[in-house]
């Protein structure tokens, strides 16, 4: 489970996510921070820590491709999260423990 973020970390994460959304032109993207942190933590532990950035890139690529083909963005992201979780050596399926990190989205 992702650690609880301090108020300063939470604020920094929100600012960073907003800046990245703006830079990439995706201001309306839902960002399931808790799920992403949980999965990337598992990737770091169960695969190898340097696998986290390429995994995130490939997930983004897969979600973008699915959305371009007409899939719902949230469905495509859930499917990507599940596919990566299933591919991990430590077990099939996403980490279903509750997260202490909220989702973020552009308001």
UniProtKB/TrEMBL annotation:
It comes from the Bacteria. Residues 94-107 have a biased composition (Basic and acidic residues). InterPro entries: DUF6457. Residues 88-107 are annotated as: Disordered. Residues 9-88 form the DUF6457 domain. This is DUF6457 domain-containing protein. It comes from Kocuria flava.
């Amino acid at each position: 489970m992702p650690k609880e973020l301090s108020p300063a970390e939470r604020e920094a994460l929100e600012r960073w996510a907003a800046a990245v959304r703006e830079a990439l032109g995706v201001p309306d993207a839902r960002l399931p921070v808790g799920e992403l942190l949980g999965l990337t933590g598992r990737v770091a532990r169960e695969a190898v820590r340097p696998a986290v950035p390429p995994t995130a890139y490939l997930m983004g690529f897969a979600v973008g491709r699915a959305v371009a083909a007409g899939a719902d963005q949230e469905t495509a992201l859930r499917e990507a999260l599940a596919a990566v979780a299933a591919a991990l050596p430590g077990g099939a399926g996403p980490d279903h423990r509750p997260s202490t990190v909220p989702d973020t989205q552009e308001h």
